[in-house]
Write a structure and sequence with these properties.
Elements (H helix, E strand, L loop, with lengths): L1 H16 L3 E2 L5 E2 L12 H23 L4 H12 L9 E3 L12 H9 L16 E11 L3 E11 L5 E12 L5 E9 L5
Parallel strand pairs: 3-7
Antiparallel strand pairs: 1-2, 4-5, 5-6, 6-7
Amino acid sequence: MKKIAILLAVAPLVLTACTSDATADGATEATEGAEAGAPITAEEVTAAQTAWGEGIVTIGKAFTEEGDFRAAADAHIKKFYAYGDDATILFKPTLAAEDQFRGDFEGAMSYFVGTEGSEDKGFAIKPWTAVRWENEGTVVDSDSAMAMGNYYFTDTEGNDTKVEYSFGYVRGADGELKINLHHSSVPFGG
């Protein structure tokens, strides 16, 4: 009986730590600073997608303004990808044909900012001015999440490029969502 009482006393604390915050318009947003091991929420996935897109725009802006775009890309990769978290990363970038898969940090960096003499021209330094997400669906279980759909990259002339994506997420040691699967491609025939 004492075990049940202890569980009932702890349960509200666990539920409070895993809830989302309501906004004025009734939508929810992910609770910031979730503890490592806390269940992932669909709202966190949406927030991570938005922040990832903003990071891509930031890299391109740094490049355009002749700033330290490599440092911006370094920070972006470290913030959003699980490289260094003892996780296997499955990354198949949109515009990669020769070096299709980027399982390490250096491969991701090359893709985002380019490497002379390779197929990598620097996807993030195009630059893009916005990234808009349209999830077909999001699957969440207690310690991982997957999302699939289309995202649209807006160039400096206002034109959108539609790209198909599948992203997988795990919670990093810092409590933030980290990408462990990133597959994107241009639609067939597009």
